[in-house]
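Q: What structure does this chain adopt?
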Amino acid sequence: MFLDLNGPPLVRFLQGSRTASLVRAGILIALIALIDWRFDVNISFGFLYLFPMLMVGGCLTRSQIAAVAALCTGLSELFDPFPWTVHLGVTRLILTFAAFLGAGFYAYQSARNRRLASRHMEDVEKESELRREADEQVRFLIESSPATIFTLDADRRVLLANEAAHRLLGFDTGKLEGRPIAPYFPALASVPLSGEVFRTAMECRGRRQDGEVFLAQICFSTYRTRSGPRLAAVVFDASEELRDRQEHYLQQLLAGSKLLVTAVCHEIRNLCGAIAVINAKLAKDEQLSRHEDFRALGGLVEALARMAGLELQQTKRPEPESVDVRAVLEELRIVIEPAFRDARISIRWDLPGSLPPVWAERQALLQAFLNITKNSQRAMEPQSRKELIVRASLDGDSVVVRFIDSGPGVTAPEHLFKPFQSGAAATGLGLYLSRAFVRAFHGNIEYEPQPSGCCFAVVLTPAERDEGSWKEDDGEYPTAAAGRSQPVPGEPQPATGH
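A:
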C-alpha cells in the first residue's frame, strides 16, 4: 500500500515552494529530534523522519536526499532508547537509512513524474491548439479559395466540398456532400482508388446540375486513410480560357491567311505585269491584235492584276500595344525548351535586367520568335554542335533580340524573306510571314552575317517613342545596325497596304 499524496491536508503540508518545503522539513526534523530526546520512554520516534524525507524528496537531488537520509538515520540512532550492539546496531542503521532513502527517492520520483506529466500535458495542449489553428486555417483556405476543391470516398461520393464547388456545379451550400461525382465529372469516377497512388492532372468535360457542359482542368491525388481510400481534387473551369484560345487562334489564322494571300497576290501582280509586257509586244502584230481571243486574254490579265491590287489595298496591319519583351521571351522559353532539350540543343538566354516596353502585338511577336527558333532547330539537327543563343539588348533607339545558332548558315542571304523561293523546305513563307508580322507594328527582322552559324535580329521600336511615328512613315523600318529607321531598298513591302 502506497502513501497517498493526493489527500488535501497532506498535500498542503508536503507541497509548496522549494524554500518553504525545506524550511518546514528542517523544523520538522529538529522537532522530531527534540521529542525523541526529551521523552524517555521505551518507544522510538525515528519513524517520524519519513515525513520530512517525503518533503525534501521533491526539492533536492539524489545526493542531497542521501545526505538528509543519513542525518535522519544518525539522529534516530542517537536518541534511540534501545541498547547498542554491533550486530543489532549496524543492521538497524542499514534498515533505517534504506527506509529514509527509499521514502526520499519515492518523493523525488513522484515529483519528477508530476513535472514530466505536467510538461507533457502542456505540450499536448499546445500541439492540440496548434492543430486546431492549422485545421481552422486549412478550412478557411479551402472555403475561401476561388478554386473548386472537394474530396471523394471509396464509393466516389463527395465527402467535402467548398463554396466554389457548389457554385461551379450549381448547388446550394451543403447540398453537394454525399452525392456521387459520376454525373458531374465522369472521368474522375473512373480513377482507380485502390492500388497505385495517383498525383496528376487532366483535362476533361464537366457537367453542371442544370446540364450545362464546360471544360474542366483537374489536379487530383489519391491517398489512403483508416476509413479507406480517398481522392482529393482541385478543379478549374477552363471554358473561358478555351474560348479565348480558340478566338485568338482564329485571329492568328486570319492574320496569317491575309499575309499569305498578300504574298500570293504580290506574285500574281508581278506575273501579270510580265504577261502584260509580252502581250504588248505581241499586240504589234496587226493580224494577232485583231484576233478576238487575243484581246480577251489581255482583258483577263488586266482583270487579274486589278483583283490582286485590290486585295493588297484591303490588307490592314493590326493595332500594336505596349509589350514587355522579357515576358514574351519567358513565354517563348516555356514553349521551346522541352523540344530543344529532347533534340539535345542547348539554349543560352543572355537577357539584361530590364528592357523598355516596345510597340508590338504580343501573340504576333511570339509567333515570329517561334518561327525563327524552329528554323534554327531544323538547321541544327544534322550538326554535332547544337547551341542557340537568345540575346536581347538596347541598341541605340531600338530594342534588338538576336537569335544566334550554330547551324550551317545561309548560303544565299539575298533570297531570305521572299515567298515561294526555290529550295525552301515548303513554300518559303515562314520568314516572310514572320517579318510581315513584325513590320505590321513597325519592327523589322534582319539577317546578320556571322563567321559561323546564323543570326537573325528582331528590331523593335520602344514604346517610349511617339505613338504616331509608326503610323506615318510606313515605308521605313528600323535596323539593328543604325538604330534608326531607314528604307529597305529592292524589297516589296508586305501587309502595308501599298
